């Protein structure tokens, strides 16, 4: 167990987290789930009120579910009946070229209610802007007694030794400083991570992608347009609107379903500051009409990045989220990959702090998560390249037979090639830790895919999902019955005895729940009689009988 030394101010915590964005807040909430105390430092006093990511993918929603907050998060963002479609237009007041249908929240509820027993998506992707969700996470974190929040505090000095870490933070309001000691420190402090710089760790990969659209410097603008729905979008509502014509290309996201939107534009002069009037003018051309518009804020960002840090950890200091991987937003993987980092790291920190995690357990964080960051950044960049190659014929806006043919061709192209970015379920649910030293298996890794998730209990992947009874609500999913430690599933009507594994777990202090799933469908889905599931819901081991050396399996999966 880590020793916290206590400084002159006597401020200590089990884990110190630098950065209270979505990844830092989720890490603190996971740690709280395991009963671990953390202190979170964040430069701003509250949530940054500028829209960013819109997609909380089905894996992130499962993580929210584990924390008991998925239902509340589903209420954020667009109204429940608002379509979540991605629609392509020449201009918002002109021709619609193509539409990917995606279910509204009301339809999501119906789909879940009608799902079959082994449906793999108990928590479908939710579209709600990150700023609404971050606001919720911050308010929720304030209610948890294990979490100390230092918002409005910038952490600026870090040190570590064999016993623990120390950091100093400055309060922006009164320049007061505090020094905290902790067992571990995690930098969730974004792309400019001070913690990563302190460790001397660099990103590797591509920092940009030069192409006509979604490449290089982009501007994201948050705006209010009170008449846009009434006058132009009424019958053609969508979650994201792509405008494609010979003159311009724009992406616009619906935020609240009434009057707020975010648009991405590519400025002609990459070095110029965002200009309200220029953005409004671009919006008018994108609509094909002038309407009342109030620009709320702008944020420049660079599209096309696919950067991954060379290491995710250095002894007692770890990094997660944008601090170790920067994505281009196509596919919506950035925040989601960071939340999955936090899920992977939290149980390992908790196991080590509570004494049942082995001395190699924390090493597995980098080993397991860095390949996923490479996989996901590569997938996002490939999707961005596809978006960039759409050919836009000069006559596609003509009200003529040849214009109609050109519109049909562009519509067919985007329908065929651009759909993967809206349903990348393979990326979402298919992250696997094959070859990790804490996965007890010699089985071959299943095929990886961006667009497809094939459930398998081959150790390393996410535990396949199964509904346990007729109810399709909270409490009815296998994931609602897993413990906060390891869970040993006994599958099928005649499962083997597991007393030796249970005794070995008890001896080592490894928290282990045993869950019987007698149903034939669950046994068939898993293809084995036993499956050992880690606290982050990945399978650590499987077999048809209790392992001959249960202690060796437990040693391996806990990094001893
Ligand atoms: C236009 C756009 C669209 C996107 N769309 C999506 C999407 O659809 N889906 C998706 O998953 N992702 C998306 N992303 C990416 C997503 O926004 C980021 O991946 C996510 O915000 C990363 O979260 P984080 O917590 O790691 O870092 P951040 O959100 O950057 O948070 C870091 C926090 O650390 C704080 N901080 C920094 N330094 C210090 C310090 N020294 N002391 C104290 N605090 C500090 C900062 O103030 C900040 O609050 C998008 C990004 C952009 C720009």
Outline the low-pLDDT stretches.
none
Q: How many domains make up the coordinates? A: 3
Bound molecules: flavin-adenine dinucleotide
Helix content: 25-40%
Q: What proportion strand?
A: 15-25%
The outline comes out as globular
CATH superfamily of the largest domain: FAD/NAD(P)-binding domain
| Terminal residue distance | 14 Å
Q: Main beta sheet: strand number and arrangement?
A: 8 strands, mixed
Give the overall pLDDT as a whole number.
Answer: 94
What are the key terms here?
16 helices, binds flavin-adenine dinucleotide, D-Amino Acid Oxidase, Chain A, domain 2, FAD/NAD(P)-binding domain, 560 residues, Glutaredoxin, 3 domains, 8-stranded mixed beta sheet, alpha+beta, 7-stranded mixed beta sheet
Describe this structure in words.
With 560 residues, the chain is an alpha+beta fold. It has three domains: 12-76 and 128-206 and 306-380, FAD/NAD(P)-binding domain (3-Layer(bba) Sandwich), CATH 3.50.50; 79-124 and 216-303 and 390-422, D-Amino Acid Oxidase, subunit A, domain 2 (D-Amino Acid Oxidase, Chain A, domain 2, 2-Layer Sandwich), CATH 3.30.9.10; 432-557, Glutaredoxin (3-Layer(aba) Sandwich), CATH 3.40.30. The protein is 30% helix and 23% strand. It has 16 helices and 24 strands. The protein has helices spanning 22-33, 58-66, 70-74, 105-113, 130-142, 194-199, 228-233, 276-287, 334-353, 363-388, 401-417, 425-429, 478-481, 499-508, 520-526, 550-557; strands at 11-18, 38-42, 55-56, 86-89, 96-100, 126-127, 147-151, 153-160, 165-171, 177-187, 203-206, 216-224, 240-244, 249-254, 260-265, 294-303, 306-309, 313-314, 317-319, 325-326, 486-491, 512-517, 530-533, 539-543. Strands 1, 2, 7, 8, 9, 10, 18 and 19 form an eight-stranded mixed beta sheet that branches. It has a seven-stranded mixed beta sheet with strand order 5-4-13-14-15-12-16. α1 (22-33) runs parallel beside α5, α1 (22-33) packs parallel to α9 and α9 runs antiparallel to α10 (363-388). The longest helix has 26 residues, at 363-388. The two termini are 14 Å apart.
């Amino acid at each position: 167990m880590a020793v916290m030394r206590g400084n002159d101010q006597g401020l200590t915590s089990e884990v110190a987290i630098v950065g209270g964005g979505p990844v830092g807040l989720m890490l603190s909430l996971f740690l709280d789930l395991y009963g671990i105390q953390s202190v979170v430092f964040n430069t701003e006093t509250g949530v940054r009120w500028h829209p960013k990511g819109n997609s909380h993918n089905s894996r992130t929603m499962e993580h929210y579910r584990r924390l008991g907050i998925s239902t509340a998060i589903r209420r954020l963002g667009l109204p429940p009946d608002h379509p979540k479609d991605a629609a392509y237009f020449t201009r918002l007041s002109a021709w619609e070229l193509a539409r990917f249908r995606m279910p509204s929240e009301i339809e999501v509820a119906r789909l879940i209610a009608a799902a079959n027993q082994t449906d793999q998506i108990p928590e479908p992707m939710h579209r709600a802007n990150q700023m609404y969700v971050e606001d919720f996470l911050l308010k929720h974190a304030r209610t948890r007694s294990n979490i100390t929040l230092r918002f409005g505090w910038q952490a600026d000095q870090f040190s570590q030794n064999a016993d623990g870490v120390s950091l100093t933070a400055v309060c922006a309001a009164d320049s007061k400083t505090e020094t905290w000691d902790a067992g571990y420190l995690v930098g969730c402090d974004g792309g400019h991570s001070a913690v990563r710089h302190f460790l001397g760790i660099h990103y590797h990969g591509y920092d940009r992608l030069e192409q006509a659209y979604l490449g290089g410097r982009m501007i994201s603008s948050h705006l209010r347009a009170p008449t846009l729905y009434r006058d132009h979008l009424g019958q053609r509502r969508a979650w994201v609107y792509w405008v494609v014509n010979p003159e311009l290309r724009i992406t616009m996201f619906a935020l609240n379903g009434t009057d707020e939107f975010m648009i991405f534009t590519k400025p002609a002069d990459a070095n110029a500051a965002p200009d309200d009037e220029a953005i409004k003018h671009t919006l008018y051309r994108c609509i094909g009409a002038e309407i009342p518009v109030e620009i709320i804020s702008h944020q420049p960002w660079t599209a096309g990045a696919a950067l991954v840090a060379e290491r995710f950890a250095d002894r007692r200091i770890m990094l997660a989220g944008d601090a170790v991987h920067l994505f281009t937003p196509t596919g919506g993987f950035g925040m989601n990959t960071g939340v999955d980092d936090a899920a992977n790291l939290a149980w390992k920190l908790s196991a080590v702090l509570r004494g049942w995690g082995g001395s190699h357990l924390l090493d597995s964080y980098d080993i397991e998560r860095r390949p996923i960051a490479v996989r996901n950044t590569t997938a996002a960049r490939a999707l961005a390249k596809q978006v960039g190659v759409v050919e836009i014929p000069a006559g596609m806006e003509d009200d003529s037979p040849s214009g109609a043919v050109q519109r049909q061709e562009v519509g067919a192209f985007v329908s065929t090639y651009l759909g993967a970015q809206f349903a990348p379920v393979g990326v979402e649910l298919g992250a696997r830790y094959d070859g990790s030293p804490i996965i007890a298996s010699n089985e071959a890794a299943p095929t990886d895919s961006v667009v497809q998730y094939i459930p398998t209990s081959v150790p390393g992947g996410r535990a396949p999902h199964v509904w346990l009874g007729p109810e399709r609500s909270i409490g009815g999913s296998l994931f609602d019955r897993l413990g906060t430690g390891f869970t040993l599933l006994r599958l099928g009507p005649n499962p083997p005895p597991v007393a030796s594994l249970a005794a070995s777990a008890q001896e080592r202090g490894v928290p282990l729940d045993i869950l019987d799933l007698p149903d034939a469908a669950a046994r068939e889905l898993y293809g084995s009689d036993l499956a050992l599931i880690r606290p982050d819901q990945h399978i650590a081991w499987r077999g048809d009988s209790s392992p001959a050396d249960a202690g060796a399996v437990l040693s391996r999966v806990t990094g001893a």
